Amino acid sequence: MDTQVTLAEEVLLLTLDDESGVAKERAGAAWAIPGALLAELALAGRVVLEDGKVSAVGREPVGEPLLDGCLGRLVAWAEGRRTAKASDWLLKDRATAPSDTLARLVERGLVTEERHKALGIFPVRRYPEADGSVERALRERLAAVVLHGAEPDARTGALIALLHASDLHRSAFPDVPRKAVAPRFAEIAEGEWADRSVREAIRNARAVLAAVIAVTAATTATTAATM
Questions:
Q1: Are 186 and 161 in contact (CB under 8 A)?
Q2: Most buried one in 102, 127, 154, 203, CB count within 10 A?
Q3: pLDDT tens readout for residues 61-111
């Protein structure tokens, strides 16, 4: 492993089925991943978030291709904008962040890319596990904090808050009822484990996800009413 895996990669490792390579809880992961990249850029001191706005305060490379790619996109997007809303950025980056994160996991050798054609026509890609050591260590770290009461460091706190914001409790603990872990997730999410910019990045991700869910529900209800 050339560098430490990112928070976005950790989210994806938790939500990919190890054997089939199919993404579980796809919708939540799709929002957690851009939120994770933004939170990690805040942890690295490259962006600051305040009052729902995001600004780049450092353009020096982090040294991790996934994060540096995100930072470059963010800087280019924010230039010339009077107001760079974090929610607008998350909506935009959702189109790029998940596929870039998958590509990075393949590059690291943690998952493999398998290509198939459904019904002999439609291209399908799956990403089964190739090296489970990182995911095992990750799950042990989460269990220590969530199940056994250890204090989280900033990165683990950020990851748990992201998982909570995106309702990915089941991906983190597939064999534990959600109601048994959700209170601890919530407690950590509200804690003071990182600076304000990191916590605000996660709050924005959660707000965007909530808004999308609300719009989707309203659209579905309207469609059903007109059928």
A1: no
A2: 127
A3: 999 999 999 999 999 999 878 889 888 999 899 999 999 999 999 999 999
Q: What is the pLDDT of residues 186-196, one digit of tens each?
A: 999 888 777 77
The amino acid sitting at 175 is: D
Which amino acid, residue 137?
Answer: A
**pLDDT-derived band at 211, boundaries 50, 70, 90:** low
Give the other-Cβ count within 10 Å of 63's Cβ. Answer: 10
Position of tokens 């800087």?
75
Count Cβ atoms within 10 A of the Cβ of residue 35 and give its class: 0-12 exposed, 13-18 middle, 19 or more buried: buried
196: three-class secondary structure by DSSP: helix
**DSSP character at residue 132:** -
Taking the C-alpha atoms of residue 98 and residue 128, their distance in angstroms, rounded to an integer, is 16
Q: What CATH number belongs to 7-226?
A: 1.10.3630.10
DSSP code of 226? H
Amino acid at 172: A
| DSSP at 116 | E
**Which contacts qualify for 41-44: CB closer than 8 Å, 24 or more apart?**
41/67, 41/70, 41/71, 41/74, 42/195, 42/197, 42/198, 42/200, 42/201, 43/154, 43/155, 43/158, 43/194, 43/198
Helix (H, G, I), strand (E, B) or coil at 54: strand
